[in-house]
Each structure stands twice: as C-alpha cells, then as structure tokens.
Amino acid sequence: MKFTISLLICCFFLSVPTFAQNIYSVKGEVIDTAAKVRLENSSIVVLNAKDSTLRAFTRAGTTGSFAINNLQKGKFIILISYPGYADYVEPFTLDSAKTSHDFGRLNMLLKAKLLADVIIKGKAQAIKIKGDTTEFNAKAFVIQPNDKVEDLLRQLPGIEIDKDGKITAQGQAVNKVLVDGEEFFGDDPTLVTKNLRADMVDKVQLYDKKSDQAAFTGIDDGVKNKTINIILKEDKKNGLFGSLNGNVGTSDYYEGQAIFNRFKAKEKFSAYGTAANDGRTGLGFQDASNLGIGNGDIQFVDGGGININSSSNDALDSFSGYYDGKGVPVTQSGGVHYDTKWDDDKKSLNTNYKAGNIDVTGITTTTTQQALPNYINDTYNTQSFNNSAFRQKLDATYQTKLDTSSNLKISADGTLKNFHVDNVYNSVTDSDGVKVNQQKRTVINHGDQRIFDASALYTKKFKKPGRTLSWNLSEAYNKNTTDGYLKSEIDYYDVPGGKDSLTNQYKTTSTLSSVFSSNITYSEPLFKKVAVLFNYGLGINNSSTDRESFNQSAPGVYDVLDPTYSNNYKFNQLTNQIGAIFNYKSGKTTFNFGTKASGVNYKQTDEYTGDVLKRNFINWAPQAMYQYRFSQQQFFIFNYSGNTTQPTISQIQPVLDNTDPLNITLGNPNLKPSFSNRLNAYYNSYQVLSGQQFYVSGNFSNTYDAIVNNTVTATSGKNTTQYVNLNNETPYNYGIYTQASKKIAPFDLSVGLRLNAAGNISYSYSDNALDRSNSHSYGAALTLQKFVKDKYNFFINAGPSYTFSSMSLQPGTNNNAAGFSSSGRVDLYFPLKFGAGTDVRYNYNAATQTFSAQYTTIWNAYIYKTFLKDDKLKISASVNDLLNQNTNFSRGVNGNMSTQTNTSGIKRFFMLSVTWDFTKFGTLPAKN
C-alpha cells in the first residue's frame, strides 16, 4: 500500500495524451514603402489574444516575406518588430471559414518620423520566465536614492519581506540570496538585501536551486531550495561603496552599523559591523546554517545517514542565538567576505568569517488546554528568560577546472558556539476550575559546541553527450558539552495520596558525532530522449551521548549520581545506498522517476550495563517528477517523493527525562519505521503584453505507521508520554497557495491577490484513547502598490483568515476563530530634500472557547532630510511603536494540546539617526 501513490503517478504520466497537428496559417511581407526597403530578418511573433502567450515565431526572408504554418484555430495577435521601427500589432482570427490569413504588404514606420501617429510605448519588460527561472528586470521598477536591494524586492510580484528582513517568495521561505551566482556571506540573505544598493542591480532571478550533483547531471534528485540571484550591472562591478549609520534614542536605545564593500571585476571584498539594543539584531544574525545549539537526538534519515536534532528535550534548555521578536535583545555582530576568480575563471575562492553575540531578556505567558477523555486540564505558565549566545564561523570554498571536462570543488567550515540560559517557570494547572498542581522551576544551563565540516565534489563529463560521473566526499564533526542546574518545586492539591515534589540536580551532557559519507553518481544516455542516473553511497557514523544527573550530598555539593536520569550510549552505523533514476526529455515534456534504497546496520552499546542493541533495516526513497512547458512564459511541474523514517534514539530507548518533572518521557523499543508520501505541484504563467502573472502551488503529504505520542495523565496533572505507532489511521497535511498580480496601466498601479489554505489531520493517544485533531486555516489578501519616483511610494496588504480547530476527545469544544492582518507603508518625497513616511502592521485573532482575543497595532513613523550630492548624507528622526502595543503572540495545536503564547517586545521609543552612504564606481587602481 505504501507505494500505491507512486505507481498511480507513473501510470498517469505514461497515459499523457498527444495532440493533433494544426492546419491553419498566416503570411505577409514586411517593407518600408517610404525608403523602398524590404525589412529582412524582421521578428514575427504570433500571440494568443486571450493571455498573450507565445504561439509561433519566425523571421522575414530576404524579400521581407514570411509564412507561419501549423497554427490552431482561434483569436491571435501578430507582433512585428524591426530595429529603429515602431512595432506593428494587429489582432486576427483563424477559424473553419478562414484557415489562412494574408496580411499582404505591411508598411513599417521609422520611430524618428512618427509625429501624429499613435505609438504603443511601454517600460522595459518587467518579467521573463526562462526555463524554471523567473527573471525581473530592475529597470522596470522604481528605485529611489539610497534604496537597498530589500527595497527593490518589495516591489516584485510574489515576493514578500517582513519587518525582520525574512523573504518569502511564492509562498516559500528564501534562505539563500546569491550575487552574480556566487554566495555572499554564506547563507544569510540579509547581508545582501540590506547591504547592496538597488541601483547596482540589473536583474533579479528567482528559482529553485538544485543540488550540485543535480545541476551537473541535469537530472532532478528532488533536492531544491528557493533562491534569489542578484545580477549586478557591469558598470557596478568595479568600485567602492558602503555606509555608516548611528542612532541614539530615548530609554537608552541605540544602534550603530558600518558597511564597506570593494568590488573589482571578479574580486569582491566586504566587511560589516553592528551593535544595537533596539530590536534590530543587525546584519548577519540570521545565519541559516548551524544556528542550533543543543544536545541532540539522533534520527535515521532517507539516505540511511543520521541526523542530530538540536531541538531534543533530552537535556536542559538551550538557546540557539536567533532573535524572533520575543524579548529585548542586545547584539553585536561583524563579518568579512572575500571571493575572487582567476586563471581565465578556471579557479575561484569564496570565503567568509562571521562573529556575533546576543543577550535576550523577556517574559512569555502561555495558556495550554489539554483534551482528555473525560475532562480538560488548563495550564497557565509564565516564563522569565535571560539568555545569551556567542558564535563565530569561518568557511571557504575553492573550485578549479581541472581540464575541459572535469572540475573539483572543495569546501570547509568551522564553527565555535557557546550559550547560557537562565529560565524561571511558574505554572498552575486546574481542571474544571479546581486547582490540580502548581510548579516553580528554574533552569540554568551553559553549553559549548564545536563543528567542523569538509567536503569535496569531483565532476567529469565524457565525450558522449549526457554521460557524466560525479563523486562527493564529506566529513562532519560535531561536539557538544553542557552543564547546568535543574530546580523544581511542585505542590499537588486535592489529590488522594498526592504529595509535594522537590527536584534539585546538577546535569551534564556530552555528545560527539563523526559522520563520513561518500556518494558516486553516474549518468548514461540510453536513447536520444532517455537517460538513467545511478548512484552508490556509503555512510559511516560513530557517535556517543553521555548524560549524567547528580543529587546533593550536602548543600551546594552535587556528587551523588542519579542512575534513573543518567545514561551513556555509543552508536555505530554503517550505511550502503544504491539508487537509479530514469529521465525522459522530449520537446516541452520532462519526466523522471526512480528510487533509492539504503541498507543500514546499526549498533548501540549501553556503557553502563554493557547491553548491545543491533538493528538492521532498509530505507526506501522513491521519487518522480513531471514538467510540461506550454511556452517560454508558462510551465507546470509535479513532484512526488517518499521516504522511510526510522524512530529516533530517544523514541526507542526506555530512558527517563525529568527536565520538566510534570512531563516525563519514556522510550519504546518496539517502534516500527513510518513511511511518508509527499506530492507537490506548481503552475506559473506570465503574459508579456498585459504584464499579468499567475502562480499556484499545492502540496499534500501523508504518513503510514506514524509515530505518535501516548500520554497518560495522572489525577495530579503529571503527564507520562511514550511513543507508539499509529494503526489503521493515516495523518496528513495539505497546503494550497495562489497568487495573481497585474499592472493597471491607466493608474500605473500594481494589484495582487493571494489565496491560501492549509490544514492537517493528526492523531495522538490520551490515557490510551485515540484523539483526532483537525486544524484547517484559510486566508486571502489584497495587495496594492504604487511607486512614483521622487514623489511618493505606497504599499498596502490586507486580508482575512479563518481557522477551524477541534479535537475528537472533546467534541463540544473547539478553537475556531476568525483573523485579520494588514500592513501598509507610505513614503513621501518633498522639495528641498525633505521626506517622511510611516508604516503600520495590524494583527487580530478572535476569541475562542478557550483563548481570549489577540490584537496588536504596531505603528512607526519617521521624517528626514538629505544632504550632499546624490543625497549621500541623511539625518532622520523616528518613533517606534507609537501606540506602545508591541507583543509577539501565536496559537498552535500539538497532539491533544492547544496553546496560546504571548511575549512582550520592545515598546515605544524615539530615535535620532545619521546615515552616510559613500560610492565610487569606475576603474580601481591596480594592486602594487
């Protein structure tokens, strides 16, 4: 049953119909009667009248004549162009009564001689769809003085940027922004979007970046990441530019930033430094790679390798160093980037160093409703946190072209991190208004992490087209150590036999992971349209986890080992993987399918008892992809993937965790693996003449033998959770995202509409009774924006939402609620180099049967004046959160628990800012 979906997909693709030959045609001659010239090589384009998509293309012959056959019947537009002449546009119809249209002699007019004639004139074409890439022409958008790349991206259809600079494109997060195809400061998009000037940009490309091996072979392996590539103008690739910024505000708030860039042809050098306590964590503090600092759990993944999950709760609290708007941060960060190419671009080097420190303090309140078979528990928790983290990372990538057919890429990076957390929790649980328990818990923890990764990728193309070989080697070393204190006091109320509980322990954790992997891929064309890709992978993992808990022998002396909450395991794993993918490509159609199978030999040793656990299993990972390109501006893609997921070590091992004494977790050695199916579909269309874009995507996934929680709740309110496999039920998730945008020409107004839906059916056991959780949300948003150079800009995005949320164990209660969110921004440009602006964000979640209503309005405003040539100096005054309402809130469902969380953020303050931008483009002096 697990492979039924993949088989149905393959049958569907094999049954795709073919279409009949077209029998309609057009012809004519392109001439300039005034100059008596026949316009040879004129461009002849036939477009669909309905959506302006391309139907046919040709060029005029030596006599200026042209003919296009094999058209279908319908309504069309002919577009004829020749350099120096005004375009000729005429609609026409082909039907059964008129199978051929003769335009006769078409007289073209020189643009220079047009006086009273009507000319269809527009801006540069805004969007092109090239293969799987959507390309935006920066010239078609408004760029104000001192705009950054972030300001340009906000104007592009389908791209959204939140207040922290996080980018979402076509409903998916963008985690990588490249510059001229090269990484710039690693995986931190804000270092490009907030650093580079918008007037330096020629094109912006949006696409799904494939893995290095898939990009090399041309055969999709299912690995994709939404990516933006910034292409610079040629005259902006040589020069110096940057900025200095200083801000001082009320309540002792401050912010400072310095950025320096030196670009010289194929060489780039950049450096930055920031310091702030006003909520702006600065450039470089959203490094997407290896942010987590945790003690980890181990999971067997698709390819048979091992993942370490930094969010595991098997150790005390940790802090990743990422600021998400909760609390008040104090940050310092800095970094250096250098990349260059030489030897006729045969060799390249890209390297980065980044360091950052953050301290965050705040208070979070959480309301949790737990649905039980016969009653409901409500828990009210307040967390006071004081967390800090420091990290530094150095990475480098070297690429060389060994000869005309082979390349070598070597990458390495090292990271040092440490964190400190000081959390105090106060919670009260009641049942139907009767107090059940009360807890005060303090967690103090310190951790250090050392990471080193290295990889080498060799690629070679043979003489036979399509025959390739690639070999990837990698080594990943990860060491974590933590030590901290857990103190918990629990009072139980009105429970027969209930008693108070005290916990006071010192805990240490040491985890070490060394993972070596090798993957060889070979592609071979079988026929003209069919190729096959084979791969063999080898993985060796040696890991260990040592957790110890100590009780006191005397006040402040923690030297009595508690074996109940202590364990020491070693893990050894050998993985062999084989796979094959068949690829078919013909004309507008591309289709591939295949699978990978991994045989895993796993050995676990309990260092305390000497017990050895061995497991041998096979992981399957089938995949399929279908793509049809209707035209250059319109395509459809469908993807399927499946994978086996083995239980994690903490899910298997019967090891107790008392990090939260009211929530104890047990392992289950009898767990079976689960199998998941994932379906994704995309459709994208752009109409050249009307400037209209339409995009829709959908996804669906389900899981067989899913691993879920079975939570038994005592009358004291204490939860004991064990993992079990779900039988006879299949949880699933789905999502639909639709976006349409169009330029209203008479008003030069961009209008966009977004519709989205998402939901899931999940399961869990509560007191051994099955609970079915339903959660579905629907939303819509309308976007209006207009940019008028040197006058004004405005942007408005607003729309409603509705969420349905219920649990089968308590059918009489639900958390259904309406919502509304909006954001807007207005920038005004006045004479004498004055300007002003304001932005507003409003969010509302209606009250439910469980939770109170949530709403916030964040209103900011500023006024400024610029000085010097090209407005290089800017002095501004601003106010943050005029209404003093800044609060971070969220709602969610996990198993049989519904939660609502509120965390205070930075409130109202006034700030005075001075910014100096410097630029010097042109030929730079040569090095001595």
**Helical residues, percent:** under 10%
Describe the main β-sheet briefly: 26 strands, antiparallel, barrel
Low-confidence stretches: 1-22, 115-123, 283-314
Mean pLDDT: 85
Q: What overall form do the CA principal axes indicate?
A: globular
Task: Please give a structural write-up.
- This protein has a 26-stranded antiparallel barrel. The chain has a 6-stranded mixed beta sheet with strand order 9-10-16-17-14-15. Strands 1, 2, 5 and 8 form a 4-stranded mixed beta sheet that branches.
- The chain has 928 residues and is mostly beta strands.
- The chain contains 5 helices and 52 strands.
List keywords for this structure.
mainly beta, 6-stranded mixed sheet, 3% helix, globular, 64% strand
List the helices and strands and how they pair.
Layout: H1 4-14, E1 24-32, E2 37-38, E3 43-48, E4 54-59, E5 65-71, E6 74-81, E7 88-94, E8 100-107, E9 127-130, E10 133-137, H2 149-153, E11 159-161, E12 167-169, E13 172-174, E14 176-179, E15 182-183, H3 190-193, E16 201-210, H4 212-217, E17 224-232, E18 238-249, E19 254-264, E20 267-276, E21 298-300, E22 306-308, E23 328-342, E24 347-371, E25 376-401, E26 406-431, E27 434-461, E28 468-492, E29 501-525, E30 530-554, E31 557-561, E32 567-586, E33 589-606, E34 612-631, E35 634-645, H5 649-652, E36 657-660, E37 663-666, E38 674-687, E39 692-704, E40 707-713, E41 719-725, E42 732-744, E43 749-766, E44 769-788, E45 792-807, E46 817-829, E47 834-845, E48 854-867, E49 873-880, E50 887-894, E51 897-904, E52 909-921
